[in-house]
């Protein structure tokens, strides 16, 4: 019989995370203090993050040990299976081999617990009693609620209003694990009240929700803030995914020619691809694609600039591709991809030509999701459908070129609480949205693009 699923034994689960900062061919620009404009130090981050996470944020160590208490809890769902998409290959009549990493088997249904578990642990041992956070589609908020429950901490989530309304069962998931969820912008914070005063019908944005969560964290005793994407330590924790993939593909003697992941803040595609990017830096030929919505084209149309991570400018300035901290994206169903900025690590790798960004329209992603569901059986989250759609494009391209490629994509989560989105698509209620040029100009006028550094060419270092 064909081997459909490639498993690792629990004893084979990686015991370290991989830190790509140790192998970057071009040094990154430092985060800047929002008040002074100077590089931030550990003392600047201490009000919102516990020290172990701050140390990981700035670490240059290549491999970092995963604490035993985190490993034990990873075993609830890890290692996750790698699937060969035979039925999809047959449907597309492609010579390509298509593999997908199934991160939807976690209790929260996505890849997000990989970092939520680590962040909950480090907060717990640092004396934190409560964690505040934001969430877009609700995957991160539900993951952090789940992980906080295992460590006996409170979890407060500010959920982007449009997604709060579109996805009520994400809120129920958070509450089932003991978290509390408030639609953002809210009247609970000064930041939320300011936004509502300007626009009482604001659909919200991740930037606004971050502002509320950070304000709540610094206002309460024994409370810290957690971020589900963008920052270096988040990318680090997600790499257990790609490290498992490397072991699994070795079992069947394959290695990817193409790696694909959807990208909103960067953690999902980074977690799967970063261990392979290390190989690419050292000469391996791999096409690594980060896929974003055409309605929120951060990487494909935004400038590389210093910008705030939140709307009311409380966070450090980060060097990243951005649409501007005041950008409010269109209310598409892929709420987890509706963020104005891209992770600095991912942004730097794009500058170095190690990652190729692409944008896809909403309707194509849902069509791809239906094809995937009707061939492989799994119903994808709207975010994951972006990776599915790009994998289908690449498989068709392989057929047209007559090449036997190996395609790997990260299936970042299931869509079983996103069925309203599928209903809207199948009933013809969804449409594509191209961000108008004048709106792009308005969104980025408050930020100054950074000069692009000299381009790095993969394979030029040993």
Structural features, described:
With 462 residues, the protein is of the alpha/beta class. Helix 5 packs across helix 6, helix 6 runs parallel beside helix 8 (168-176) and helix 9 packs antiparallel against helix 10 (206-219). The strands form 4 sheets. Strands 1-4-5-15-10-11-14 form a 7-stranded mixed β-sheet, sandwiched between helices. Strands 8-7-6-9 form a 4-stranded parallel β-sheet, with helices on both faces. A two-stranded antiparallel ribbon has the order 2-3. It has helices at residues 42-45, 51-58, 68-74, 86-92, 113-125, 139-150, 161-166, 168-176, 190-198, 206-219, 232-238, 240-251, 267-281, 298-301, 344-351, 362-376, 382-401, 419-426, 437-444, and strands spanning 5-6, 16-18, 63-65, 82-84, 97-102, 130-135, 154-160, 180-184, 223-225, 258-262, 287-293, 304-308, 317-321, 356-360, 406-411. The chain has a domain at 5-10 and 67-109 and 233-444: Rossmann fold (3-Layer(aba) Sandwich). 40% of the residues lie in helices and 15% in strands.
Descriptors for this entry?
globular; alpha/beta; seven-stranded mixed beta sheet; disordered C terminus; 19 helices; 462 residues
